[in-house]
């Protein structure tokens, strides 16, 4: 009796479980709706292709989908994840190994929803949570560019190193449901057209938040637009501290004018800073190609994001410092011999060519990763308007010990009114290991 | 743009961010200043700007407009520079000589600011690299100069 009642109960329970499992299976493998389902994408007029090329610049597709020396957009960039390495894919119109067989709707589902044909979910290393905000027009133009403006390249995609069962993709659909935007950017009626254009580029194609917004436990960006306080509030990623892009006086853009933001994104430098770290690639491949109107819109939007004095700390003020009187301090001594030629005994740098360290975000943020990383590894070549720059931060990896780097950075982060705080030799050693190309656990890239 | 170099005025055409070293060597033909590393690390390109030593390979030329640049070619026109060169000869400091114009500039700048430097101050200021290893001779020459009075 008991037995059969148990069987009956189990039977009744199994039914909803099966239904739930069925629904879940449908949800995690379904093709999201695309407004382009019925659209024939046959008309690739040159204006649309070139518009698409510009959207590809705004979106910096090349950063991950091209390798130096490789064929454009043929993929291959290795990105480390906590679970194993994954590789950016071939997005040329090659029919076998690229995306030549994608319809416009397929392309839309991949770019804005992270779903490849067949319902396979992409890893959110592809910044589709941001690209979700692309307008229909821009997606159509982007598709035209990738189909007609890019040379097909036969190059098979590399498999990921993530082992089973962690390599199952369907749970990403649940992650998407929780964390990814799924509607294009909607203009805010209480803001003007320039502000809305800036918001669109920053949140959508520019995917600035991928680096500059802190991430939560599930590696999700904590905010995707200005309605969340963490949006673009600065984040530690891949061994760099991507500074705040809000109006924070110390760690953000509080001291920058809109025109200085435009100058920085257009030329790679202004009187406050020079691009370095991962931003060098964003500049080389993307921001310098943006139109003056778009850059002005970005400046306008970013300057509308308020800072947070509590997070940011005491506002920095320049304080004169006699470095010469401090030569018994080993950090000051290293500064004079190694750094002062470019950055100046007064810490003010040289015009916009060599950045000041007095008031630099890397010397004011409590996260010291950027200061350590740039000192160990130097800066990459900045290429503006096709010309490599004349000056570069050299790598001190081979010249200075962990202790010497800690000493000089502790000096810099405490001089001229800077208050980022001391740096420990152990932190230098850790980052030295992680950024050593010969080490077994290098930081490759998590996100861009 | 107009540059003042070794008490002469030169009109040069260069981009604002061109390193001063290229202008001195390539445009003006003053090749006594040497190119070493190009990264402000070795000091072979040292020149004086308003009496302070700077590394010309990392000095955007626009930054020295309106200032007085001195290169090794004119160092003996300076009373301190003249004594430095004499001490260099006395101590036979140079070996291959490539870095020595930069070393002389560094020593001149030090003695202009600190006429009687201590040994520790000499070591702190004389940080240009020399692959021949003439460091001891350099130190001895500057040490001698430190003990002298100007005009002695």
Secondary-structure map with pairings?
The complex is a heterodimer of chains A (about 450) and B (about 150).
Chain A: H1 2-29, H2 46-59, H3 62-65, E1 78-81, E2 84-87, H4 104-113, H5 128-131, H6 136-149, H7 171-179, H8 193-203, H9 209-212, E3 235-237, E4 240-242, H10 258-267, H11 278-285, H12 292-302, H13 309-312, H14 330-343, H15 361-364, H16 369-377, E5 383-384, E6 387-388, H17 402-412, H18 425-434
Antiparallel strand pairs in A: 1-2, 3-4, 5-6
Helix pairs in contact in A: 2-6, 8-12, 10-12, 14-17, 16-18, 17-18
Chain B: E1 2-5, E2 8-11, H1 20-27, E3 46-49, E4 52-55, E5 68-70, H2 79-90, H3 100-113, H4 119-125, H5 135-147
Parallel strand pairs in B: 1-5
Antiparallel strand pairs in B: 1-2, 3-4, 3-5
Gist?
The complex is a heterodimer of chains A (448) and B (152). Chain A has 448 residues and is mainly alpha-helical.
pLDDT below 50 for ≥5 consecutive residues: which ranges of chain A?
444-448
The helix-strand sequence of chain A is HHHEEHHHHHHEEHHHHHHHEEHH
Q: List how many beta strands of chain B DSSP finds.
A: 5
CATH class of the largest domain in chain B: Mainly Alpha
The largest sheet of chain A, given as strand count, sense and whether it forms a barrel, is: 2 strands, antiparallel
How much of the sequence lies in strands of chain B comes to 5-15%
């Amino acid at each position: 009796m008991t037995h059969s009642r148990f069987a009956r109960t189990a039977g009744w329970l199994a039914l909803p479980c099966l239904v739930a499992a069925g629904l879940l299976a449908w949800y995690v493998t379904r093709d999201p709706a695309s407004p382009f389902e019925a659209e024939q994408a046959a008309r690739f007029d040159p204006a649309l292709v070139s518009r698409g090329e510009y959207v590809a610049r705004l979106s910096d597709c090349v950063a991950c989908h091209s390798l130096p020396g490789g064929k454009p957009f043929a993929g291959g960039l290795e990105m480390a994840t906590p679970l194993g390495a994954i590789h950016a894919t071939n997005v040329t119109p090659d029919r076998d190994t690229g995306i030549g067989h994608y319809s416009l709707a397929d392309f839309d589902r991949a770019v804005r929803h992270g779903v490849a044909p067949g319902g396979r979910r992409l890893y959110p290393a592809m910044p589709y949570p941001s690209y979700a905000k692309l307008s229909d027009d821009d997606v159509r133009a982007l598709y035209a560019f990738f189909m007609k403006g890019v040379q097909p390249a036969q190059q098979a995609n590399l498999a990921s190193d993530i082992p089973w069962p962690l390599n199952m993709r369907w749970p990403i659909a649940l992650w998407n449901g929780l964390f990814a935007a799924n509607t294009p950017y909607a203009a805010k009626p209480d803001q003007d057209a320039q502000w809305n254009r800036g918001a669109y580029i920053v949140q959508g194609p520019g995917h600035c938040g991928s680096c500059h917004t802190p991430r939560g436990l599930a590696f999700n960006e904590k905010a995707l637009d200005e309605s969340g306080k963490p949006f673009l509030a600065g984040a530690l990623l891949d061994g760099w501290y991507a500074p705040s892009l809000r109006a924070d006086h110390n760690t953000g853009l509080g001291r920058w004018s809109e025109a200085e933001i435009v100058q920085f994104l257009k030329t790679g430098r202004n009187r406050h800073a020079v691009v370095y770290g991962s931003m060098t690639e964003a500049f080389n491949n993307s921001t310098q190609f943006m139109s003056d109107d778009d850059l002005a819109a970005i400046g306008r939007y970013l300057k509308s994001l308020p800072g947070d004095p509590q997070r940011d700390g005491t506002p920095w003020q320049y304080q004169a410092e006699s470095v010469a009187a401090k030569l018994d301090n080993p950090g000051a001594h290293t500064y004079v011999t190694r750094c002062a030629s470019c950055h100046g005994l007064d810490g003010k740098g040289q015009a916009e060519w060599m950045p000041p360290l007095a008031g630099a975000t890397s010397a004011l943020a409590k996260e010291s990763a950027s200061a350590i990383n740039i000192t160990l590894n130097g800066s990459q070549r900045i290429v503006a308007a096709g010309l490599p720059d004349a000056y570069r931060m050299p790598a001190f990896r081979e010249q200075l010990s962990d202790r010497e780097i800690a000493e000089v950075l502790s000096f810099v982060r405490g001089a001229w009114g800077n208050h980022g705080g001391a740096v420990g030799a152990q932190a230098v050693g850790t980052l030295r290991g992680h950024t050593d190309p010969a080490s077994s656990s290098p930081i490759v890239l998590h996100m861009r | 743009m107009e540059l003042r170099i070794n008490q002469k005025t030169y009109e040069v055409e260069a981009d604002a961010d061109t390193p001063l070293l290229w202008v001195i060597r390539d445009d003006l033909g003053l090749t006594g200043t040497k190119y070493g590393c190009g990264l402000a690390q070795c000091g072979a390109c040292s020149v004086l700007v308003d009496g302070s030593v700077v590394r010309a390979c990392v000095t955007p030329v626009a930054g020295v407009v309106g200032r007085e640049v001195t290169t090794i070619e004119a160092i003996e026109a300076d009373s301190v520079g003249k004594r430095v060169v004499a001490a260099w000869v006395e101590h036979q400091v140079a070996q291959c000589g490539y870095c020595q114009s930069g070393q002389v500039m560094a020593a001149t700048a030090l003695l202009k600011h600190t006429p009687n430097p201590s040994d520790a101050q000499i070591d702190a200021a004389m940080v240009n690299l020399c692959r021949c290893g003439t460091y001891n001779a350099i130190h001895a020459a500057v040490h001698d100069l430190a003990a002298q009075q100007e005009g002695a």
